[in-house]
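Journal club prep — side note

Before the paper discussion, L.F. wants everyone to see what a predicted structure for a comparable chain looks like in token form. Sequence:
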Amino acid sequence: MRLFAAAIVLAIFSSIAMRTQSAQDHALDLVLPTDNDALFSGDGPAFYQYVERNYKGMKSTPWEGGKYGFVRDPTDTPGGVVYTRFHEGIDIRSVRRDENGEPLDEVRAIADGKVAHVNLVPGYSNYGKYIVIEHRWDGSSYYSLYGHLSSIRVHSGDSVKRGQPIAVMGYTGVGINRERAHLHLELDLMFSHQFEAWHDALFRNDPNHNGIYNGLNLAGLDIARLYLALHQNPSLTIPEFLSGEETFYKVTLPKSPHFELPKLYSWMLAGNRNQQASWEVSFARSGVPLKLEPSDKHVTQPELSYIKKSSINYSSLTRDIVSGHGETAQLTGYGRQLMRLLIYPD
């Protein structure tokens, strides 16, 4: 009888644990990673770290350069000034410094998760010292990245809780100094677990020190806009958030057993997969994949199948993934290689 009662108690606790895990798996409950919360008051200059710009001999320090998106490297075009350099995350200003101007800001995990990668060698990445944390929401993995750190308090494999201290802000990495010390924050999707083999095959003279957590394998979404959207709708999910993104171009990929996106992010799937000859992948201008549709078109290599019309060279609008004008649009060499990553080693 006691064994039967114990079994019932165990079953109850197991059920509670499963429901708790399920709730954690579905909850998109983010906190800001530092004490700087000016994002929520709309004070951009106080929240974003400015960049130093010299455009046509005019020097400036626009805070907009710390935002997500195409916010850097202005270039004149027939259609006007276009910002051609994409910033995959947001740069959060320091709000605490010592008497020497060194940043003291504590960096915290934005949500529950597991430390997937720690880079302790500044020269191994443009991010300098950085951390990647894996989060599970609605059955898919997403990755928060914390860059330019001065010191790190966690190790790969550690479980972390929302708001847990993980590092201290710094200015390690490329292109920043003590005055411009900040936290670079991203929230990413992953392209492929075959990234290391793909990278080694194409970039033999450029060692990859960060495995699958190399920035080339991570596609960052607009995390600042996500924070603001969650304030308006706390039940928002990432698929719902990305459903509002505009499709800027589509690429048709050969059918491949190595195509991981349908497994990693099943919410992207649309249409009937029976008898398809290829996949058509929809991308935002940022390069974030948005939708996966079966296609009956037979292709042997990645092909551009759609792009939003523009008079500006597409290279400036798509991070050099697509080039040309109007009807001459095509994948660049880099674009073709990046699309091959999605189906590598095919």
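L.F.'s comment for the group: The domain at 28-244 is CATH 2.70.70.10 (Glucose Permease (Domain IIA)). Keep this in mind when we get to the figures.
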